[in-house]
Amino acid sequence: MGCLFHKGRQNSNVTKKGEVKLEGYSWDKRKTVNLKDYIIESIEDGEVLKMPGAVNGQQFVIQNCKNTSIFVFDHANTVTVDDCINCKIILAAVKGSIFLRDCKECLCVVACGQFRARDCRKVDIFLCCTTQPIIESSSSIHFGCYQLFYNELEEHFQQAGLSVFNNNWSSIHDFTPIEGEHNWCLFPDTIKIQDYVSLPASQELQRLSASLLAERSVVPHTWGLHKTPSGESCLVAFFSDGQQVQRAKAFINALKIENPYCLLLLSKEARMQGVDAEHVFRTDSYNAAVQRGLVVGLHYSGPNCIHSCQKVAVSIATATGSTGLVYVSTNPKISQKQVDSFFNFANMQLIA
Fold first, then answer.
1. 275 pairs with which residues across the strands?
2. Phi, psi of 104, rounded to the nearest 5 degrees
3. Is 252 helix (H, G, I), strand (E, B) or coil?
4. Are 232 and 301 in contact, with CB atoms under 8 Å apart?
5. Is-contact 103 122, C-beta < 8 A?
6. What distance, in Å, lies between the first and last C-alpha atoms of the chain?
């Protein structure tokens, strides 16, 4: 125990004149947060637009709104939407959970880590969700694939810790199923998001180049688990080189032109080890490639699918100089097993 009267080191907060300098703390420098900036409530027959930087990763609340369009073009932490009626809501990128409670006759376009809906009725949702979406005590809920673009959206996904390829929009779990009834369903293939919502014609959004067109969406359009595979199944995997996301998107766009009947059913981004690669690819040739980083996997299905995927993959690899950084199924007899192995592994990784 030290002596109370020990001089020790001179107090650095005392000036030569004997004046005491107040020590600064990190929390003294934090920007003051006005909670009202992150709450939208009791708006009726209105329109609310939040531009990039307005939310900036904070928690957000929407409640007691009616006949109102709400557009949040920013990333948030978690979002709760309570007691809203006949509202159209776009939430561009949410790191954690989105909770919908006691809402009815609403349209939502949302990307999030987790999605929960409770006590909701007649809600249409175009969704990108990392984990399995859950509904409870809800009915007449329709799901479709998230489609949205604006200039900063890809950056907002990264800030929210979301992958554009990890989208379980069609894998719904209903906590309260009713025998003989369906509380939810997936939109028909012919439905487009533009049929349900349009963006405001404001100069601000024009500067963002905002769009709901599928061909411009940051999140690739997937057909989901409900789509029955027709023809061959094919696994396409892009190995990390810092440009694998761009190469995967270029491949998706090129294959739509090469073979429009070859459909993208699922996509995943996951980290693999050598033993995982051997199980999926049936060879150790890709053990080193998976050590580079995240692997983007695509599940395609359709007539002449493997040949079309191989042709486009060669074209993309040649154009980008990335030969050896992509895998495409070669044997239709085992391609479905490869697809199942990769996506089962990726899903288990997300759960863990």
1. none
2. -145, 145
3. helix
4. yes
5. no
6. 48
Q: Where are the beta strands (DSSP E) in the chain?
A: 39-41, 47-50, 60-63, 69-76, 79-82, 88-101, 104-118, 121-129, 134-136, 139-145, 173-174, 184-186, 232-238, 263-270, 295-302, 326-328
Interatomic CA distance for residues 330 and 342, integer angstroms: 15
Q: How far apart are CA 59 and CA 79, in angstroms?
A: 6
Cβ–Cβ under 8 Å, residues 149 and 216 = yes
Residues belonging to the binding site are 96-97
* Nearest residue to 169 (alpha-carbon basis) of 85, 268, 86: 268
Task: Choose among 171, 229, 173, 169: nearest CA to 193.
Answer: 169
What domains can you pick out in the chain, each with its CATH number? Answer: 28-206 (2.160.20.70), 228-351 (3.30.70.141)
Structure confidence at residue 36 (pLDDT): 87
Distance from C-alpha of 305 to C-alpha of 301, rounded to nearest angstrom: 6
- Spatial contact of 259 and 308, defined as CB atoms under 8 Å apart: yes
Burial of 203 (0-12, 13-18, 19+ CB in 10 A): exposed
- Give the separation between CA 265 and CA 338, rounded to whole angstroms: 14
Q: Give 86-134 pLDDT, tens digit per residue.
A: 999 999 999 999 999 999 999 999 999 999 999 999 999 999 999 999 9
- Quickly tell me which residue has 């928690």 as its tokens: 59
Q: What are the structure tokens assigned to 117, written together?
A: 């809906």
Q: Does 2 score more than 70 pLDDT?
A: no
User: What radius of gyration, in Å, describes the C-alpha atoms of the chain?
Assistant: 25
Report the predicted TM-score, pTM, of the whole model to 2 decimal places: 0.87
* 3-state DSSP helix/strand/coil % of the chain, to nearest 5: 25, 30, 45
Largest CA distance in the chain: 88
Q: Which amino acid is at 142?
A: H
The secondary structure element, H or E, covering residue 275 is: helix 274-281
The DSSP string of 290-350 is HTTS-EEEEEEEETTHHHHHHHHHHHHHHHHT-TTSEEE---TTTHHHHHHHHHHHHHHHH
Q: Is 100 exposed, middle or buried (0-12, 13-18, 19+ CB in 10 A)?
A: buried
Annotated binding-site ranges for GTP: 96-97
Q: What pLDDT digit, counting tens, does each position of 141-179 carry?
A: 999 999 999 999 999 999 999 999 999 999 999 999 998
